[in-house]
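Appendix B, record 7
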Amino acid sequence: GLLGLTAAQGKVGEATHAENPVTLSDVTVTTDAAVGNSFANTRGLGGVIGRAESAISIKHVSYESTKAAAAESSTYLGSIKSLGQAAVRYMYVGGMVGYGAESMTFDDCRVLKVRIAACEYSGGIAGQIYKNKAFTANNIRVKGIQIDGAYSGGVLGGTDVTGNTFVLSNSSIADSAFKTKPCWTPSPEGARTYSGGIIGDTKGTIRLSNILVSKNEFTDKGIDHFYQGQLFGDVAPQDINGIYASGLDVQLKSGQ
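Structure tokens (predicted):
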């Protein structure tokens, strides 16, 4: 959105404050990567930064749409539908940052009514954080977004390994939709979405405090399965060092 690729330490919103945030409104971020260019397809797309090679700090930023997320084109934030998902397989898409190779910090950020579409690893705030790095976010509001894709989260698409740390405080994820949009080779495993209200692919140490997850919609469900979660998408015991939560409020949408 603002920066495609940055190797410098990134700081956005440091000179402003909560009453006067940096606002990106009705901004469309897409890829023109050629079909089959797998390297380009995994670099990252974000409303503020596509790919951050160094540590970043983002404060007082709002990324929003004036239309409802469902009304936006599926190419609204990094979708590859127009190029063919099976061939392009775009991944690492986030409302603020697509991919973070170092630690990421967010404070007082909003993502509102934005549609985020990718093959996998997309999130309301960030798509993916690299091995053994920390994701820290405070006072985050994600509301009315729609995410199309696997391993997607209301805040973060995925942590990479058990050495990652995810800390979220004083935040809400509400009134958002997590759709069924697999793009892998057809198979029972490939048909599963594994997205969650907070994190999609969940690994490492997770700390949550004073969090509201309210009336979100999850569509990957059937009589004998439910491959999405109100909090987390994919959680395996061997991938988790610990999950710690206090002040967690989950409000279900009717029918969920």
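Remarks on this record: The CA atoms of residues 29 and 56 lie 20 Å apart. Confidence is low (pLDDT under 50) at residues 78-88.
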